[in-house]
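A quick aside before the break. I want you to see a complete sequence-to-structure record at least once, exactly as it would be stored in a machine-readable document. Don't worry about memorizing anything.
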Amino acid sequence: MAITIETAALSNFFIAILALLASAHLLGYLFSRLTLPRVVGEIVGGLLLGPTFLGHFFPDAFKTIFVEQGILLATLYWLGLILLMFSSGFELERKFEKGDKKTILALVLGTTLIPLIFGWIATSFFDLTKLIGTANNILSLKLVITVGLAITSIPVLSKIFLDLGIIKTGFAKLVLATATIHDVVLWVFISIATGLVSAAAISANTIFWHVFISLLFFFVALMIVPKIIDFIAKLQLRLIPLNYELPVIVLILLAFTVVASLLDINLVFGAFLAGIVINFIRNPRFQEAKQHIKDFSMAFLIPLYFAVVGIKLDLLHHLDIRFLLIFILFAIVVQTIAVLITTRFLKYNWLTCFNFAVALNDRGGPCIVLATVAFDLGIISETFFVTLILLAIITSLIAGAWFRYVVKKGWPLLVSRTHKNAETQEIKIQ
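That is the input. The structure line, written in tokens, reads:
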């Protein structure tokens, strides 16, 4: 069967890619120069090309360049999303300091359980008819709302800490380790929520099955696959070609996404686990190969993904300012309460507690992924999609501004539980 694309359509497709990438990189660069999260600039770059601006003032150009290329752009969008989650899996901390394990465990429990409980109860007070998507699945919607309250952004926080020169501090290590475990747990919830959408009927058996399959897939991926790959690498068989690591990594990514899809587990979760698996492989050549994939993804498909997210935002027709303000305030307050209760229990001083609260309130990239996956599967409405994206952007901006201010003032990021030793920063702002 011959597969053809008209020359005009193909030209418009490449024009769309060029416009999206140029806008994403330009705005991302400008935002980074302003010490703001680059990902926010990439989304704004897409926003300018979407229905809010280009589509409003030049509707014919918007339709020709972007709307008519919807299927092709959607394919690249999903590839970018898969590579984003794959790269996010690379960030998982493999080892934790012994003295930090209790703190990390307490923070993970506190910042997961409390928001989940608050979020589940709060769904009784929201008007879910405005939030639910075309799939009309209330249980999945409630899970998305609760996860949206608790999720934390590892990539954005890492970039903020790196830019400010505090990435090696004890505070940054605690935050990133907590966020890592925290988000792995929450992605299991997301995989369950998306799996329930495809179920013909919701029952206790259906829920148990999706929980069981998600946890089994998680266990096999992290406990067995890395050991098999390490074992094969140590055999040094003559049949194994040189520089085989890059193709193997790509095949692992594709295999995990396919298996996840066949098991009715969201393929994004499969890509995330594939990234964790590659990160756990001890062979240094695999670590070098994964960096090449990450560099390519960060230059091409991931900015394209965030730009398309910006195009999806229609602020003129689907922005409910009243609900946006209420939900953002509620999300920040719930997570802040959870963090303050946990960190005060650990006997940190108030400044340290507030630093943790601001960091763990940064929802960034994971919240954007949550919003796009839930929206594309019909779990949430377009109004709630816009709200979650803006929640991710606003909390990322708050985190960046706060830690820049803390470092500029020379305030300690972390005061030990004895209240005697402080982790101070003497860093010159670039």
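Two observations worth writing down. The first strand starts at residue 414 and ends at 415. Residues 424-430 have pLDDT under 50 and may be disordered. We'll return to this after the break.
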